[in-house]
Design goal:
This protein has 4 helices and 18 strands. The protein is α+β, with helices and mostly antiparallel strands and 239 residues long. The strands form 7 sheets. The protein has a 5-stranded antiparallel beta sheet with strand order 7-8-9-10-18, covered by helices on one side. 20% of the residues are buried.
C-alpha cells in the first residue's frame, strides 16, 4: 500500500473519532437528567429544562416561612418570600407585629388630645391645653374628699391626678364644648353644669369653685362640721 494513502486514511479516521466525541458531548449537555432537571413538577416553583418537560425545583421552604401577610392590619411581607409565604410581616399604621400577627397597636400615654392607658382613653384635652381631664366625675363630695381622691386618682400606672386649680377649671370651662365632644366620643361622661372644686383657697377654710354652666367663680366651705358639697374631676398635669 502506498505510504501516502495509508497516512491519509489514518488522518481521516482520527478526525472522525474526534467528531463523534464532540457529538457525544453535545448530546450529554442536552440530557435534562444529567443537567439536574429531574423532577416532573415543583410545588415551590423552579426552572424547566429547555430540552424537555422535567424541572429543577427550588429547595423546600423552611418552617419559618409560614405567614401569608394578608388581611386587615397587614402591609405585605418583610424580606424575601418562599412559596408565597414570609418569615415576618409588615403591619399597617396603627398595628404592630406581635406574637406572629399584626395586632392593633396598644397605645400608652399622651397621643395628641387623648391620653391612653393600655389602649383605652383615660383622659382628654382641648388643643393647646397642658393637662388632661379625667373621663368621669368623682361625684358631689366635700373638698377634703375631692382633694384626697384626686391625688390618688390613677390615670395609668404611675400617672396620678390632682385637683385642678381655679385657673385650670376656668380653662376647662372655656374649652368645655371641645372637651365634652371628646369625652362623649371616648365613652366618657360630659362635665355637668354645676360647680366644681378647685385646689385654690379663697380664705381660711374656703376654696374657689367654678360653675361649668356659665364659668362663674364661687366658693365652698371645706372644713368643720357642715362642709359644702361640690363636684370634682381630676386632671393630669405631667406624663
Amino acid at each position: 500500500m502506498n505510504k501516502k494513502y495509508l497516512l491519509s486514511s489514518v488522518t481521516a479516521g482520527i478526525a472522525l473519532l474526534y467528531a463523534n466525541q464532540g457529538t457525544a458531548q453535545c448530546l450529554t449537555k442536552q440530557d435534562c437528567a444529567a443537567l439536574g432537571y429531574t423532577e416532573t413538577s415543583c410545588s415551590n416553583g423552579g426552572i424547566k429544562c429547555p430540552f424537555g418537560n422535567t424541572w429543577s425545583c427550588t429547595p423546600p421552604c423552611g418552617t419559618a416561612y409560614k405567614y401569608t401577610c394578608s388581611g386587615t392590619g397587614y402591609a405585605g411581607g418583610s424580606g424575601s418570600a418562599c412559596g408565597g409565604k414570609y418569615t415576618q410581616c409588615k403591619c399597617a399604621s396603627g398595628y404592630e407585629w406581635k406574637d406572629g400577627s399584626c395586632q392593633k397597636e396598644v397605645l400608652n400615654g399622651a397621643q395628641g388630645e387623648l391620653y391612653y392607658c393600655n389602649g383605652t382613653v383615660v383622659g382628654v384635652k382641648a388643643s393647646g391645653m397642658d393637662f388632661y381631664v379625667a373621663m368621669e366625675d368623682l361625684g358631689k363630695i366635700t373638698w377634703i374628699s375631692a382633694n384626697s381622691q384626686c391625688q390618688n386618682y390613677v390615670f395609668c400606672e404611675d400617672a396620678r391626678g390632682i385637683l385642678p386649680t381655679k385657673n385650670q377649671l376656668s380653662s376647662i370651662y372655656n374649652e368645655k364644648s371641645s372637651i365634652n365632644t371628646l369625652l362623649t366620643a371616648n365613652a366618657g361622661t360630659q362635665l355637668t353644669g354645676d360647680y366644681y372644686w378647685s385646689s385654690t383657697d379663697f380664705n381660711t377654710d374656703f376654696y374657689y369653685t367654678v360653675n361649668m354652666s356659665n364659668g362663674k367663680l364661687g366658693d365652698g366651705y371645706a372644713f368643720e362640721y357642715n362642709p359644702d358639697y361640690r363636684y370634682a374631676r381630676p386632671i393630669l398635669t405631667s406624663w
